[in-house]
Amino acid sequence: MRVLITGAAGFLGSHLAERFLTEGHAVIGMDNFLTGAEDNLFPLQDDDLFHFIKQDVTKYLYLAGEVDGVLHFASPASPIDYLKLPIQTLKVGSLGTHKALGLALAKGARFMLASTSEVYGDPQVHPQPEDYRGHVNPVGPRGVYDEAKRFAEALTMAYHRCHDLDVRIARIFNTYGPRMRLDDGRVISNFLVQALQGGPLTVYGEGDQTRSFCYVDDMVEGLYRLFLSDVTEPVNLGNPAEFSINELAETVQCVVGRELEIEKQTLPTDDPQVRQPDISRARELLAWEPAVELEEGLSRSLPYFRERLQTRTGE
Ligand SMILES: NC(=O)c1ccc[n+]([C@@H]2O[C@H](COP(=O)([O-])OP(=O)(O)OC[C@H]3O[C@@H](n4cnc5c(N)ncnc54)[C@H](O)[C@@H]3O)[C@@H](O)[C@H]2O)c1
């Protein structure tokens, strides 16, 4: 197979590209480095089957030759990024998805959308199954990401219905691991960096809001299986093990082997109170479920964070 992965210089895109290469497929990575990093491409660049194109996917997309898959992963993904880049986020979810779908259609390729648990907004149903329609504030600051992804899903299904395009929609829940940006503002990167610097750990609100955290290797396995499957309806991919932010703070302290102070700060607007995937569909249709537990995943991520922090600051 020969696949295009947009957002290939990002956290998930680079791991996914690596997986396709490991399976012997050719990968064209595309990215404009809006939130990604060239460093993430280093492990891929020596592979003859990897080719990189620096391009904004909201612009006209052209690729010579056959393409069997278009995996659209380009988008700012962490709240800190999409709050800072609201228009780029809306554009990559709308125009970028349109361009990526157009390319897939022109090439007769399978299309996969990296959607998100944020399509459920601040959910009133818990855990969230795929048929839950969500609770999103379209005009709140987070609406730029949530609505962009909801539009992207709608457009994907329109191409499926009108043009019979072969599509996959992955609703990705919080994922973590090596190659996350140290300053991406996500709770796991924040905690690991703060813990390596000796604390304190910043907890927003009371810390009783919950999240589910999926280790990147598990996520990539789920994404790969979904891409190869024949499932066209959206599929939740994430780890259903639910932790409060306070529990996460405790686990991080265990992993780094030190007790740290906790500093409480005000909860951001529209921050979801609960977040947990119902992965029955993925279990049934993809025979997939996460295998890496939180403590293990954090231990596997720590060396990367330590090394990046040392490179950045000499700490
Ligand atoms: N990481 C998660 O926990 C998570 C959760 C849910 C959904 N997702 C989705 O998965 C995808 C990847 O997320 P990530 O965590 O790897 O984020 P990331 O920011 O690390 O990667 C996104 C990549 O997209 C690129 N990009 C953004 N706009 C672009 C444009 N217009 N043209 C070309 N490239 C562009 C960025 O430069 C970056 O390299 C996103 O679509 C995101 O919405 C991720």
Short description:
The chain has 315 residues and is α/β, with parallel strands linked by helices. It is 40% helix and 17% strand. It is built from 10 helices and 13 strands.
What does this structure look like?
This protein has 315 residues and is α/β, with parallel strands linked by helices. 40% of the residues lie in helices and 17% in strands. The protein is built from 10 helices and 13 strands. The chain has helices spanning 11-22, 42-45, 79-84, 86-107, 143-163, 187-196, 216-228, 245-256, 280-286, 294-313, and strands spanning 2-6, 26-31, 50-54, 69-72, 110-116, 167-172, 175-176, 201-204, 210-212, 214-215, 235-237, 242-244, 262-265. The protein has a 7-stranded parallel sheet, sandwiched between helices. The chain has a two-stranded parallel ribbon with strand order 7-10. It is globular. The mean pLDDT is 95. Nicotinamide-adenine-dinucleotide is lined by residues 6-7, 9-13, 31-36, 56-58, 73-77, 92, 96, 114, 116, 172, 174-175.
